[in-house]
Amino acid sequence: MRRIRKPLFIANWKMHKTVGEAELFFQAFNSKFPRDLDADVVIAPPFTLLQLAVQASREQYAIGAQDVFWKPEGAFTGEISARMLKDLHCAYVIIGHSERRQHFGETNEWVNRKVLASLKSGLIPVMCVGETLEQMQGGKTGEVVDKQIKEGLKGVTLTQGGTELVLAYEPVWAIGTGKADTPEQSNRTIALMREVLNRLIGEAASQRIRILYGGSVKPGNIRAFMDQPEIDGALVGGASLDPEDFVAIIESTSALS
Ligand code: PGA
Q1: Percentage of the chain surpassing pLDDT 90?
Q2: Among 51, 157, 171, 256, whose CB has the most other CB atoms within 10 angstroms?
Q3: CA nearest 115: which of 107, 106, 102, 124?
Q4: How far is the CA of 187 from the centre of ligand 1 (A)?
């Protein structure tokens, strides 16, 4: 299949790994990292491991954070700004993950502020959207992602033609459950998301924005997802903690080309 967008694979480590565990991961991952990979790879560890990850990456792959606050600095105990992330040479930041929406009360308005602050600082936001089980069963998937995209991207102007923004479709019911969406169904939802983008920011920019699938991606199912024309890559949680599994996932594109 001829791809118009370069595949992108992001490891979302969530709240996992100590320094020692991360060192072991990077040793193994670097030794297996494919040399002629035609894909972008990002590791998003917890804040405590960002500096170590940037050093370990040797610029073969990029590093991302899992969240950001929208103010550049100030009296915001516990928060980290886009400016601080840029200073550490982070390139990406995950924003609006459903775990943040569910457990920390993050709203579309907050997501929007974080997206705007990241773009302004030159970080690439990976904005996550997706419906809950109840919403899916009620046939509301399209409506939910439409609202999340429109509100999350309010006031966004893209100055680099769309390459500076990534979207991830992560059905909440598929995250960490071992029950991935079907490749066909997620392809349809992602096609809907691109239509929303077309109307919001114009077709030219929309065509350059990568939209990833996330939710129980494993070495055994990644190829079926990457075989779908609308799916540009994956946001991987559990399976990204194991260097061999994550290498198998990022290598899935080589097998298709
Ligand atoms: P999972 O998580 O791969 O463990 O389902 C995906 C995510 O939450 O980004």
Answers
A1: 93
A2: 171
A3: 124
A4: 17
Q: Which residues are catalytic?
A: 97, 170
What is d(CA 56, CA 25) in angstroms, rounded to the nearest whole number?
Answer: 10
Give, for ligand 1, the residue of 217, 218, 241, 246 to mutate: max count of ligand atoms closer than 8 Å to Cβ: 217
Average pLDDT for residues 1-16, to the nearest whole number?
A: 93
Q: 160 pLDDT band (50/70/90 cuts)?
A: confident
Q: Decide if pLDDT at 257 tops 90.
A: no
Residue 159 CA, ligand 1 centroid: distance in Å = 30
Q: Whole-angstrom Cα distance, residue 109 to residue 112?
A: 5
* Section 72-100 average pLDDT: 98
Check if 245 has its Cβ closer than 6 Å to any atom of ligand 1: no
Q: Tokens 């899992």 map to which residue?
A: 66
Round to whole Å and give the CA distance between 183 and 56: 33
Residue 255: predicted pLDDT: 55
Residue type, 240: S
